[in-house]
Amino acid sequence: SKLAELLKNNSRTVKSYLLKEEFQLFWTHASPYWAELFLDDWCAKTIRSRIEPMKKVARMSRNHRHLLLNWFWAEKRFSSGIVEGFNNKVKLTTRKAYGFRT
Questions:
Q1: b/e per residue, 53-62, with b = 16+ CB within 10 A?
Q2: CA distance 15 to 21
Q3: Half-sphere exposure of 81 toward its Cβ, with a 13 Å CA cutoff?
Q4: pLDDT in tens, 4-60
Q5: pTM attached to this predicted model
Q6: Taking Cα atoms as reference points, which of 47, 27, 26 lies closest to residue 38?
Q7: Does a structural domain hold residue 64?
Q8: Which residues form the Transposase IS204/IS1001/IS1096/IS1165 DDE domain (predicted)?
Q9: Could you tell me if residue 97 is inside a domain?
């Protein structure tokens, strides 16, 4: 099959893609408990993958697990979109003010 051929010829890329797609399931968990179990399992599996860029992501996810799990503790109601929008407005204002003298 085509998938078997892809795995044989480009296994690191395909494995990386599959790990990335699997991580997307993290956001579908209903509780912080199950999300934490999933994250631990995914990080362990990814570190065993021997794909260095993916191992780096797994280590970073493990180091920042409390931040990732905060999304579940907030019951998926809060987004950082408002803060990010405000930060963009501040950057834009600063950029426009370059060269302005009073």
A1: ebeebbeebb
A2: 10
A3: 4
A4: 777 777 788 888 999 999 999 999 998 899 999 999 999 999 999 989 999 999 999
A5: 0.66
A6: 26
A7: yes
A8: 2-102
A9: no
